[in-house]
Specification:
The chain has about 170 residues and is mainly alpha-helical. Helix content is about 40%, strand content about 10%. It has three helices and four strands. The strands form two sheets. It has a two-stranded antiparallel ribbon. Strands 3-4 form a two-stranded antiparallel ribbon. The N and C termini lie far apart (about 80 Å). Mean pLDDT is about 75; it is low at about 135-140 and about 155-165.
């Protein structure tokens, strides 16, 4: 019987395999990133569809009144603020629909009266999608706007509702 000598891979063969793997990876990584971004876009589209459904349910409950972007609790001059995710929370099953996978805002101004935590109905509110509103649509006066600006400056959050959308 003849003895076979075992021979390993040469350095050139190993380098060739590594180069082929690197070329394949360079081709596939952009494809994977594109697929991930496509999945995020689909998630955002689904979130917006569910928000639209929640807004329609809100409008049905309030005789076709448009949902406000924010609302003061306690009437004119109050310093307890609810944003639209707080208002729509009873109409959604998952508070995650307020968040886009790519970006979100966190608001905590005028929310110290709520219980600690993050999400609709808690002190820290995180959301991604905007809601249009004006100070005059809810019967608010410029005095309330000044009160909110003053409170936000004390909290170090900037001035006005647009400051949270940066």
């Amino acid at each position: 019987m003849t003895a076979r000598s075992r021979r390993g891979f040469t350095l050139i063969e190993l380098l060739a395999v590594i180069a082929i793997i690197a070329i394949i990876a360079a081709i596939l990584f952009p494809v994977f990133a594109q697929a991930r971004e496509s999945a995020r876009a689909i998630s955002c589209t689904s979130n917006l569809r569910q928000l639209g459904t929640a807004i329609r349910m809100y409008m049905q409950d309030y005789e076709d009144m448009v949902m406000p972007g924010y609302q003061y609790v306690g009437g004119r001059g109050a310093n307890q603020l609810l944003w639209y995710p707080d208002i729509l929370n009873p109409y959604v099953r998952n508070a995650g629909i307020f968040l886009c996978p790519n970006r979100s805002n966190i608001a905590s101004a005028l929310r110290d009266w709520l219980p600690p935590g993050r999400g609709p109905g808690f002190r820290e509110l995180e959301w991604s999608y905007a809601a249009n509103n004006s100070w005059d649509c809810c019967g608010l006066t410029p005095d309330v706007e000044a009160l909110m600006r003053q409170h936000m400056q004390q909290q170090g959050a900037g001035a006005g509702p647009g400051a949270m959308d940066q």
